[in-house]
Fold:
Amino acid sequence: MKQSLYRYTSLTSGCNDICVVVDNMSEAIEFPQLDTDRLVLRELALDDIDVIFPHFANEEVVRYEDCRPVVNVKDVTDIIEWGRNMANSKAGILWGIFRKGDGAFLGQVNYVARPDNNFVGTVHRAEIGFDLTPHYWGNGYMQEAISRVVEFIFNDTEINRIEAIVHTENSRSLNVLARLGFHKEGILREYVKWEGEYWDMVSLAMLKRDRVT
Ligand SMILES: CC(C)(COP(=O)(O)OP(=O)(O)OC[C@H]1O[C@@H](n2cnc3c(N)ncnc32)[C@H](O)[C@@H]1OP(=O)(O)O)[C@@H](O)C(=O)NCCC(=O)NCCS
Structure:
């Protein structure tokens, strides 16, 4: 069955992390599993807890993110539930990244739709987040995963602008996004406050019309 267009209508506005959305489509939409040459991007399930726990417990994975490593199973189920709730409410999608062949869990990639600031409009922006277990860095897996997610977002949703907000010292992430053609738009000064410190963040974005075809 052809994937239906994901359509968002914002019920809120402003710089709010919580995006309330409704789906205009009447039919149910299946979780969009995606394939690349080497990867399967699929929904995380409770059965995956044993393999994903060490990933989110790894200090290196969250080093440039304003969150702590997970410490117990509840923390991991919260992440799975967050992804499931986002998908169900069409507020975004979180994909687990699994390697074809051996089925190894490599990490995750997600996007969260962001409401426009016009009180009525549809949602045309989304922010992506992503991480890989350090053991799998240096193989081009994330570039491959994000590239497929970008294709999905621009082909199967009404989103026109994909944003990434990255710590200024997170050079690996900045390199991946640069290779994919994201444009560096500027520095968001003291954008994040985490554990008593303000972090400057780099704002990057790709527009639908930026895509190299
Ligand atoms: C961000 C992160 C996913 C990047 O990982 P990464 O391994 O550098 O990125 P990729 O998987 O795309 O791999 C790219 C590297 O693989 C190399 N590579 C090897 N084989 C490749 C192939 N077949 N195709 C493309 N690149 C390949 C590239 O040359 C590149 O190496 P380089 O950066 O030394 O030049 C990883 O550092 C991470 O998870 N960090 C912690 C979480 C985080 O900060 N997330 C972002 C928050 S905004």
Notes: The CA atoms of residues 98 and 104 lie 5 Å apart. The beta strands are 9-10, 21-22, 34-35, 39-42, 92-99, 105-114, 125-132, 161-167, 183-194, 197-207.
